[in-house]
Amino acid sequence: VQLQASGGGLVQPGGSLRLSCAASGSIFSINRMGWYRQAAGKQRELVAAITGGDSTNYRDSVKGRFTISRDNAKNTVYLQMNSLKPEDTAVYYCNANLHNRALQRGDYWGQGTLVTVSS
């Protein structure tokens, strides 16, 4: 199973970016997908997550600015980030909790994509 993330970049404060992450390989079903981030010198933290039933949760600092969504047909999760702030600068990682075709459950990670918010 591989997760391929894309969409990071440099944006000015107040701007927007959309991250995408596609899962591929020996997948039976995806339970939960999410986005984490890790800023320099800090621990990785959950940004947002979405279940197969489209239940979502967000960390407080991004509520009202970020929106997570998923396309089950494409095994893809998105993170729409609006009103970006310098403190959103971090490497963003996608995560998928899934069952592979051997019905083994596990957590998988994408390679990370850098988001830099700066003027």
Characteristic terms for this protein:
single chain, 119 residues, mainly beta, 7-stranded mixed beta sheet, 4-stranded antiparallel beta sheet, 11 strands, 0% helix, elongated
Provide the fold topology:
Layout: E1 2-6, E2 9-11, E3 17-24, E4 27-38, E5 45-51, E6 56-58, E7 66-71, E8 76-81, E9 90-100, E10 105-109, E11 113-117
Parallel strand pairs: 2-11
Antiparallel strand pairs: 1-3, 3-8, 4-5, 4-9, 5-6, 7-8, 9-10, 9-11
Question: Could you write a compact summary of the structure shown?
Answer:
With 119 residues, the protein is mainly beta. Helices cover 0% and strands 60% of the residues.
Description:
By secondary structure, the chain is mostly beta strands. 0% of the residues lie in helices and 60% in strands. Strands 2, 4, 5, 6, 9, 10 and 11 form a seven-stranded mixed beta sheet that branches. Strands 1-3-8-7 form a four-stranded antiparallel beta sheet, with no helix packed on it. Strand 4 (27-38) and strand 5 form a beta hairpin. The chain is elongated. It starts with a strand and ends with a strand.
